[in-house]
Amino acid sequence: MSLIRNIGSAAVAVTLAVSLSGAVDAAEWKGWNIHKPGYPNTVAMDKFAELLAAKTDGRYTLKMFHSGVLGNQPDAIEQLRIGAVEIGNFNLGPIGPIAPEANVVSLPFIFKDEGHMHRALDGAPGDQISAGMAKKGMIALAWYDAGARSFYNSKRPIMNPDDVKGMKVRVMNNDLYSGMISALGGNPSPMAFSEVYQSLKTGVVDGAENNWPSYESTGHFEVAGYYSDSQHLIIPECVCINADVYGALSDADKAAVKAAARESADLQRKLWAERAEASRAMVMKAGVKFNDVADKQAFQDAMKPVYEKFLASNEELKPLVAAIQATQ
User: Are 207 and 155 spatial neighbours (Cβ–Cβ below 8 Å)?
Assistant: First the structure.
């Protein structure tokens, strides 16, 4: 009987140890996203959370906080870098000033179209950008679409660079965007995205630049009725993870986390294309005055000093720029 009791006690101890080990290994991550429920990124990030739990057998779960409830984007980027949140869906625009490699995607007209961006970022150039970001505490697991950004304003159609001269244009807080507007003869006005509607309405700025879903969902089309399809910037977004958190994972879990993120990116890109088309149709029906910028060469030529200034300060990134431009 003593032997049986000892065996039984040992079995209970082993079971308890395994249970406690599982509890210790299990981790719930926090995730940040600025977009509202129903937006392609929000749906995709929720899918990422679902896939993460499934692919790691519940060892890692993700609680998403949408609509920017954990702070604005610059604050959230810093939270992720220090590990206060583990996961974030960020635009690369505000990451660029932190990690120079990420700033390359903010060079105007570096991508020919969205397909070109996908091929470059899903390949070696994307890996190089993520490696540069890793030095600053964040790793890109996958790349989301954020559309092609074009100009819109309350004054006139923009057909050529002269039409931008003297115009006050809101930009994200990045010297490359300010330099782009200055090179076109406009007056760049960096400000938070949440301030743009009122600034357009009151004339603090004359225009801004963004993609179709942002133009539509924010109501900017109501106060800036000219949309000029310049597609001057095609800036991806990342699904990012804190570098230390990722580094502590087993190789199997790293692969699982990355696979979950990339599957969510496939969904996001599909939903994004559908949303972009719907947003365009909606604002056109509302009476927005649209014009295609058929000849982009004059705009591209005007960007030469922007490229020269950037590469003079970041000579080591010339091969990355060349690799992106050479991507077929």
Answer: yes
Q: Is the dihedral of CA 290, 295, 301, 307 positive or negative?
A: positive
CA distances from 192 to 45, 66, 98, 220, 226 (A): 23, 18, 18, 14, 21
pLDDT in tens, 146-188: 999 999 999 999 999 999 999 999 998 888 999 999 999 999 9
Q: What is the predicted pLDDT for the residue at 95?
A: 94
Closest CA to 263 of 106, 80, 45, 108: 45
pTM of the model: 0.84
Over the stretch 197-223, which tens digit does the pLDDT of each residue have? 999 999 999 999 999 999 998 999 999
Q: How many whole angstroms separate alpha carbon 93 and alpha carbon 73?
A: 10
**In this structure, are strands 289-292 and 27-32 parallel, antiparallel, or unpaired?**
unpaired
Could you give phi then psi for residue 137, rounded to 5 degrees? 100, 5
Measured distance CA(231)–CA(247) in Å, rounded: 37
What percentage of the chain exceeds 90 in pLDDT?
Answer: 87
- What are the tokens at 52? 């993460």
Quickly tell me which residue has 């580094």 as its tokens: 247
Q: Tell me the three state secondary structure of residue 124.
A: helix
Dihedral, CA of residue 102, residue 105, residue 106 and residue 107, to nearest 10? 120
In single-letter form, the type of residue at position 26 comes to A
Which amino acid is present at 215? Y
**Helix 251-285 crosses helix 40-55 at what angle (to 10 degrees)?**
160
User: Which H or E element spans position 237?
Assistant: strand 237-242
